[in-house]
Structures are given as structure tokens and as C-alpha cells.
Amino acid sequence: MAVETFRKDEKNVATSKRKIFRRVLSYLRPYAKNISFAIFLMVISTLVIIALPLVTERAIDVDVANGDRRGLIVTVSTGIALCVILWIVVSLRMKLMSRMANRIVYDIREDCYAHLETLSLFYFDSRPTGKILSRLINDISNMKDMMSQLVTSIVPNILMIVGILAAMIASNWRLAMSAVIVVPLFVTATYFVTIKGFGNWENYRKKQSNLNAFSHENYSGMKIVEAFAAEKETEQTFEGIIADCERSWNIAVRRSDMMNIVWCLSNGIGLALLYLFAYYLAGIDGSSIGALIAFSSYIGLFWMPIRQLAMTYNQLTNNITAAGRVFELLDTESNLVESDDAEDANLPFGHVVFDHVTFAYPDEPEKVILKDLSFDIPQGRTIALVGATGAGKTTIINLVARFYDPVSGRVLIDGKDISRLTFASLRRSVAVMTQDPFIFTGTIRENLLYGNDDITEDEMRNASRLLGAEEFILAEKDGYDTRITSTSLSQGQRQLIALVRTLLKDPRILILDEATSAIDTKTEILVQKGMSYIMKGRTSFVVAHRLSTIRNADEIFVIERQGIAERGSHDELLKKKDGIYKALYEAQFEDV
């Protein structure tokens, strides 16, 4: 199985910006009423902004020119009232859109999380957690900015441009040409700047994803970093990744900053043309200085939204790459699919059959792990799986739990093809314990009852007592309500909590993957006692390198050469001359 690392950029699926943009808009549809009201507020604010230069023109050309003090007071009061209205309308619009943008981000995060839960184990095994979190947190946060820009920037600025242009044409169409004539130049320059900018921002997102992957991996493994005194090495690696991020950011930002240069040139040319047009074409003289000032204001107001649109478009090239990465996650198809007619069946016995099963990882179909494997495990039998690392032991138990599907063949439980069962019904009947059981941050009680909400207090305490876990639990200050993390308990304590959690689930099939390989002998005896209790009457698959833990299995499978090389009880396999199991056993106990 090929695995992505923080040292390698992700390969994103090529998708057109137009298609991404349409999908972003689809998240706005449920909020059509809010958007309509926001646009109504934008129209009001646009009309107020357009009216303000006219107030200035009247104050200069009428009230001041005629010495009308009373008229000037009324005009100034009108201007102040318009400013107050503008402040109220804009504040209300921004509050409304901010609340809506946050709600949309909530919807997107909910969709992404729900989709992640449908993906197979292969998706999570083949990439660092940090890269997944980068899409779930950073990229979606950038989508929030995109949502805000779509309604709080693009729509009002377009309304502003149209409104001001209409006002200028109505006032003096010749002067209006001084503003319009420069727009094609600005739009063309903006287009070429942002074409290159899209690729630059996409590259930055990849570098940021590498940074998140490295940070998550090293913070999770900080004990190993310190144990091997590798702080200097990891610091140098971190500096290299940070440098890559900085370089990609600077390249993207330098391209974006060109927008300011283009805007300044366009605005300056527009003002110069205004005064030239005013002198030569429009016949503006000293008696209508107010009209010229008003028109100068319109020029500034006209170019301001154009600049904001250009900057927004430039930011959208950044945010649209983030949106594309999020949609790529949402479009990722699981290697495991629950069929539409899947059966929610009860599996009361735990009779497991492999029927000519062949398996290879989805990204390496040519590398066969198991080939044409068949076996039949009756109810209540304990099967031990031994063999070299990478032989396929864990693959077998992953197929039993349907974390993966075989390339060909079938896995049956109680005569039912598990690919035709609902995930819920299958997982109710199968429990998995690993070498390092995962403990959620929370209380001991919450961890014991995880997925078992219908368990009573007495059932929980009885299970803990039976498996020897209650002693250390009650020794804690808050007993079952003690708050724990994955690192606040010893390995043995985590195993005991996992055992109790498994017993409360009451599965028909039990999978123990290296469940005792990392604990001390004293704790192993306690855990083994608990495991023996749980395994009674259940079909069990035990994967272990320590052969002392599997001697009492009903049957031992030696996994090698893409299948079962040897099978039999401990005593039967030891009698085989030149047997693989015998060699493994003697190698482990040759010094005893």
C-alpha cells in the first residue's frame, strides 16, 4: 500500500474553477431568503452612496453659490441623515451575512465529517492525519471567506458600479466616458494576473498540508523524538517545510500585489482623463465646480468597487483552491460500499468461512497479499495467526471485520456474505482489540460505555470486576468518573479498559491483534485471564508474535506465501519435521 507523507505534495484532481464555483453556490441555495434580504439592504446602501456626491454638488453649486445659509443647513443635515442610514444598513447586512457564512461553514464541515465516516480504512491508512485535518479545518475556513465574499463583496460592488455608472451617465455622459474607457485595460490585466495566481495558491495549499501532516505526526510521536534525541533533526526538517511554505506564500502574494499596481494606474489614468474631458469636451467651467467635485467623487466611488472586485477575484483564486480540495474529499469514493439492499441481519453464532479469497490493496493491485485463501471456522473456535511481518495476518482479520473487501472470493459469517450485510449489523457481531487500544479523552465511564449506551451501571461494574479492571479504576480519585487521555494510563490499564468495553459489546467474533505484546508479564497474566473469559463461547482470531500467548488455541494458522502454509494445534505443528511453526517456536525459546 502506497502511503502519502509530509515530504511529498498531494496530487489534486484537476477540476474547472467554474465547476467548483457552481458547487459553492449550491450551499447558498438554502439561504435564499437571507440572501434576498441582504441584496435589498445592498440596494439601499448603494442608493445612499450615489446620493452623497449629489448632496455635495448641491451644497457647493446652489447653497454656497447663492449664500443660502438655511438651505446649506438642510443639505448638510440631509447628508448626515444619509450617513446614519448607510451605517445602520451596512451594519445589519454585515451581521446577517456573517451569521449566514458561519452557518454554511457548519453545513460543509458536517458534510465532510459525515463523508469521512463512510470512507474505508484504506483512505486513513494511506495518508497522514494532518493532511486530512488540513482539508477539514484550514480549507473549509477559507471557504468561509469565499462565502462571505460572494455576497458581502461581489454583489454589493457590482450594484455599486452599475448604480454609479448610471448616475454619471445621467449627469454627464461625456465625463462618464473618462471612467469607462479605462475599464477594459484593468479587466484584461486582472485576468492575466489571476490566471497565474490560481496555480500559485494551489501550490501553497499543498505546502501547508505538508506542514500540518508533519506537525501532527511529530507532536503525536514527541516521546520518540525526545527518546532518540532527534530534536535537532526534526527542527531542521520543520524549518525546511516552513521555508517551502514561505516561498510558495511569497510567490502567491507577489502575484496578488500586482493588482494594486494595476488599480492605481487605472485610477490615475481615469482621473487624468476626467479633467481632460471636462476641459475639452464637457464644457465644465468655474461656475459648476460642484459638479466637477461630485464627478471626481463618482470616479473614486466607481474605481473603489472595481478594485475591491479585483481583489476579491484574486482572493477567490486562493479560496477556490481550498474549495476544490474540500470537494475532492467529498467526491472521494469509499472502497467499501454498503449495497442498497444490504441486510440488517442477526449473526448469532460466529461461524466464519473464507471462500477462495484473494486480496490486494486498491492502489497496488499487482501486489497480491492473499491468494485463493479458503478455510472454515466453526462457532466458538479460537484461531491463532502467526507468521512473518507482512505475511497477511492483519489482512485476514481486517477482511473478517470488513475494513477491506477482497478482490475476489467471499467472506461469510453464519452463511451470509458480509458484503451483503449492513455495516451496523456486521460490526455489532465483531469486536477488535489492538496492541495499543485507543482511549478517548473523557472519563473512564465514557470509554467503557462507548458504543454501548444501553448498558446499565451494574452491568458495567460487573464486567469491570470480572476482568480485574475495577481495582485500578476505584483507586483513582473519581473512580469511574476519572478523566483520562490516551497517555494518562499505562499500557496494561488501557488494555483492561478495552477488554471491558469489548465484553460489554458482547460480540460473536473476537479479534485480538497483538493485544498483549507490549505489556509486562504481571499485567499480561491479568489481561490473559480477562481475554480467556471473553473468548469463552466466541469465535476468536488471535494475532501474536509471542507464541506463549497462542499455545492453547484450537488451531494455529501459519501465514506465508499468500496463504496458509501450515495449520494445526500447537502440539501437532511441533511434531512436523522442518515445520515453519516449529522453527518459530524453537527460535523463541532456544535460550529457555
Overview features:
592 residues, alpha/beta, six-stranded mixed β-sheet, four-stranded antiparallel β-sheet, 62% helix, elongated
Task: Walk me through what this model shows.
With 592 residues, the chain is α/β, with parallel strands linked by helices. The chain has 19 helices and 12 strands. The strands form 3 sheets. Strands 6-9-10-3-11-12 form a 6-stranded mixed β-sheet, with helices on both faces. Strands 2-1-4-5 form a 4-stranded antiparallel β-sheet, covered by helices on one side. A two-stranded antiparallel ribbon has the order 7-8. Strand 9 (509-513), helix 17 and strand 10 form a beta-alpha-beta unit. Helix 7 (183-220) runs parallel beside helix 10 (289-331) and helix 14 crosses helix 16. The protein is elongated. The relative contact order is 0.09. The model has no long low-confidence stretch (mean pLDDT 79).
